[in-house]
Specification:
The chain is α/β, with parallel strands linked by helices. It contains 13 helices and 7 strands. It has a 5-stranded mixed sheet with strand order 3-4-5-6-7. Strands 1-2 form a two-stranded antiparallel ribbon.
């Protein structure tokens, strides 16, 4: 199911069979359609419902922990290793944020899965993959290859802030973990990237800036800030009215060709900032 028309047709057929409007969770499970696919065409589930000519859905069912963990386990099978948030976003049926909110953080999902998979032999292969990943990380650490941040097994403390990996980039001690961090970092490096910021606002697009396009010539550019470039699509932003996505991590391979992408993680990790060179990722 890959088109808007197919989603609406399946939604109408399911409603007729159930005698009521299905919830997004019901639709996703019964049709084996990732929930994120619906948000490619509709900003809210009830927008899809109305487009199908159905009354709004008032029913909400909380996903069971087992459903979330099974889906994560399938992602491990496909990846043959621990999936990153971006990798799970591509192959999983749910948002990484949903799993993090339910189990504490991204690393805690693996610990919750091991508890779930105990005495369930159908998941032995996934448990073996997880154990192998942990062994490799421990060997790397013992060999003196530096800290392996993704292998940490510490239980997070309740009601305590969390931070991104240490980077010590000028006055920023840790990697951004949200869109606000991207805005701050862009403000720190905008001039080196060749941008003059004119204004920042809450609405779409987030920022108006200018950049030099020739000798003595500058041009206006409209910027949208995202933590990950794929969030632009997930947030339902129109592909018109914006020229550039500034993000920490670029994970949207199908990004429209006319939208440029500046991935700040690449800039920070490259030598460009120390040499005063411009750095840009254009897709």
């Amino acid at each position: 199911m890959s088109s808007k028309r197919q989603i609406l047709a399946s939604l109408s057929a399911m409603a007729k069979k159930l005698g009521r409007t299905p919830s997004l969770m019901e639709f996703s499970i019964r049709t084996r359609t990732p929930r994120k696919l619906a948000f490619r065409y509709f900003r809210k589930w009830n927008e899809a419902v109305r487009a199908a000519g159905l009354p709004p859905c008032r029913q909400y069912k909380r996903l069971e922990d087992t459903a979330l963990l099974k889906d994560w386990g399938e992602a491990v099978r496909k990846a043959r290793g621990l999936p990153s948030r971006a990798a799970y976003q591509r192959v999983g049926s749910h948002s990484p944020r949903t799993l993090e909110a339910r189990f504490g953080n991204w690393r805690a999902v693996g610990r919750a899965f091991k508890r779930f998979a105990k005495n369930r032999p159908e998941w032995d292969d996934v448990v073996a993959i997880l154990s192998n990943c942990k062994s490799k990380a421990n060997r790397s650490l013992m060999a003196g290859n530096g800290p392996v941040y993704d292998s940490a097994e510490h239980v997070p403390l309740a009601k305590r802030s969390t931070y991104g990996n240490p980077i010590d980039f000028r006055g920023l001690r840790h990697e951004p973990v949200n869109e606000q961090g991207v805005v701050l970092l862009f403000g720190m490096v905008a001039q080196e990237l060749g941008y003059l910021i004119e204004s920042v606002q809450n609405g779409f697009p987030d920022c108006e800036a200018k950049r030099q396009v020739g000798s003595g010539r500058w041009q206006r550019v409209l910027i949208e800030f995202e933590f990950e470039s794929r969030n632009f699509r997930d947030h339902g932003h129109p592909t018109t009215g914006c020229d550039l996505i500034v993000c920490w991590r670029h994970n949207w391979p199908d990004c429209p060709a006319h939208l440029e992408v500046v991935e700040l993680s690449g800039f920070v990790k490259s030598d460009a900032y120390s040499k005063g060179q411009n750095y840009r990722v254009s897709i």
